[in-house]
Amino acid sequence: MALVPVGSPGERLEAAVWARILLARTDGTWHRLKLCREPACRSAFYDRSRNNSGVWHDVRRCGNAANLRASRARRKQRAAGAPAGG
């Protein structure tokens, strides 16, 4: 048995995508397809991490930006909560 897309080029592409989704759902790989957490990026990626914990499609680009923002926010919060004079 084989899945063979038919129809116009657009319909064949859509059928091929849906066929791959069906196969991914049945073989257990669907849960590894994710969207990058970086709001400006939101690229789809396949999480190859051992424990399925990936959240950015590119740790060096998107992950670094997110971690830098979080670090700056923590630093700003600590500075705002620090007593006057040091």
Automatic annotation (TrEMBL):
Pfam families: zf-CGNR
Residue stretches making up the Zinc finger CGNR domain: 32-75
InterPro entries named in the record: ABATE (IPR010852), ABATE_dom_sf (IPR023286), Znf_CGNR (IPR021005)
Record's protein name: CGNR zinc finger domain-containing protein
Organism of derivation: Streptomyces cellulosae
